[in-house]
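Quick review question:
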């Protein structure tokens, strides 16, 4: 594995793993820590210790538009542009959530109800209980909203049908497909 490959992998799966395009093993912290998304935190932490909230501010991500959020999260999870401009990956692209989400018919780059953080809290583990996402789905698909009709089949476990888990052959791991759609039985994987 080349130094560039190591820097690329560890750049998302660890914190402070790279300086520019170089692998920085001496500074690597396992896992995703605050700095990976918010930038350097030394000044922020020093400000907290001194009870000065304005010292060393961190990057605040809450004001991002849906498209900005997709591109920001896509730094690790891959953007639409990156995947669309590369070779066809077929089912392998299920791993790239921002790309798959933007392929959804309902995706709107200005609607915060379909941003990454509308469903996921980046400070917590991903919730594996599918029914826990129902209220997020209902934000757009309540029965009272004629433009985004509610499902006629069920009102719970929305993602189990509309965002199925897909196994990449040979990987022994399933990924939730973030391309929101009506999934037909035995339908081929949509590119």
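Suggested answer, residue by residue:
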């Amino acid at each position: 594995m080349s130094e560039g490959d190591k820097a690329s992998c560890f750049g998302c799966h660890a914190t402070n793993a790279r300086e520019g395009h170089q692998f920085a093993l001496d500074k690597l912290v396992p896992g995703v820590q605050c700095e990976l998304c918010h930038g350097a935190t030394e000044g922020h932490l020093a400000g907290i210790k001194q009870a000065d909230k304005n010292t060393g501010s961190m990057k605040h991500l809450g004001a991002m538009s849906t498209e900005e959020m997709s591109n920001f999260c896509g730094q690790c999870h891959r953007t639409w542009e990156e995947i669309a401009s590369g070779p066809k990956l077929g089912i392998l692209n299920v791993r790239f959530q921002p790309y798959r989400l933007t392929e959804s018919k309902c995706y709107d780059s200005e609607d915060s109800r379909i941003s990454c953080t509308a469903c996921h809290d980046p400070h917590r583990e991903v919730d594996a209980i599918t029914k826990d996402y129902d209220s997020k789905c209902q934000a757009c698909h309540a029965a009272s909203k004629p433009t985004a009709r509610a499902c006629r089949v069920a009102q719970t476990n929305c993602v189990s049908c509309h965002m199925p888990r897909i196994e990449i052959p040979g990987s022994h791991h399933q990924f939730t497909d973030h391309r929101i759609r009506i999934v037909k039985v035995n339908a081929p994987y949509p590119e």
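Why it works: The radius of gyration is 19 Å. The first helix runs from residue 3 to 13.
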